[in-house]
Amino acid sequence: MDGSExxxxxxxxxxxxxxxxxxxxxxxxxxxxxxxxQRIAVLVNDFGSINIDSQLVVGVAEDAISLTNGCICxxxxxxxxxxxxxxxxxxxxxxxxxxxxxxxxxxxxxxxTFLLPEIRSYTRxxxxxxxxxxxxxxxxxxxxxxxxxxxxNQVAVADIIILxxxxxxxxxxxxxxxxWVRRMVPSARILEAVQADVPLELxxxxxxxxxxxxxxxxxxxxxxxxxxxxxxxxxxxDAHHHSHDHxxxxxxxxxxQTWSYTAERPFALKVIRDTLKTLPTGIFRAxxxxxxxxxxxxxxxxxxxxxxxxxxxxxxxxxxxxxxxLIGIGLPYAVNPDDLTxxxxxxxxxxxxxxxxxxxLTFLRAGQEA
Length: 370
Prior knowledge:
Layout: E1 11-18, H1 24-34, E2 40-46, H2 52-56, E3 64-68, H3 74-88, E4 96-100, H4 107-113, E5 123-133, H5 137-143, H6 145-156, E6 160-164, H7 171-184, E7 189-192, H8 210-218, E8 240-244, E9 247-252, E10 256-263, H9 269-277, E11 283-291, E12 298-305, E13 308-316, E14 324-330, H10 337-345, E15 361-364
Parallel strand pairs: 1-4, 1-5, 2-3, 2-4, 5-6, 6-7
Antiparallel strand pairs: 8-9, 9-10, 10-14, 11-12, 11-14, 12-13, 13-15
């Protein structure tokens, strides 16, 4: 037996995919907290240089491993393989491996990593689950053809498609989404969800076969057209620019751009809310863990998806020094690092007043409809 063979049964692998803001981290948290007694290792790949998603995986920080860069290809694929090998070679390996892929990555690149000789006998691809934001998906199609192709690729390889946020669409849109998915992936299981709440017994344990998936995936032809010189190319050498001590951006080719920001002073709630409302419409996803002056003892969790912005208040900071970390992604014209850094720095305050509400805040961005 060589080093690439395992004496233990292969570890089932679940891949979560879906475009930005579709609800992957919410579903991941549901899987983790609904699978008590099962040892699950988590790999989280986020689109920015700060891995916000790994911070939002509640209560399993010791088992959540971060991979940053957003696109599971190029060097990040090497990191994925190295990290996964470290997990499967543990003396007491996990019973399941769950990977939350970045919203701008192709899940098949993840699956292909686990076909490599070094690891294929240690893991077994169980399920690819794609989440679709029922409210935003048609707006996402309208942004740039690249996004349409990416969403199609994510859905086309899935065993299970979850139409998430289904409560935010009318019956006509609901029926159209079912028809779109069924036309593209006739054999997939389609589930509807609010807040990614679906019975876990419908998600795990499908015992999918890699060979069948490989044939299925490569039959999509035009749907899967992003060669690394076209729609989904990444400049990892010159893309990382510093415009501020605590802010930077990453240029994923010509299609979209990311920006990250860190601050060690709190945000004034009203000012940060007004700033979020008036961000350029070309910024279509932002998320972060924020320090808010009016509720300084608790982490504030930011989610901006399309027209909707939500701030919720989570766990206390405890022994962790409070700070704000956020990332955004959008069209290149909208992601101006200097402008965004200036906008958010203007929201900082030195006055901490612990009297604010911890009720969730949900609002629409200026000039946009629900």
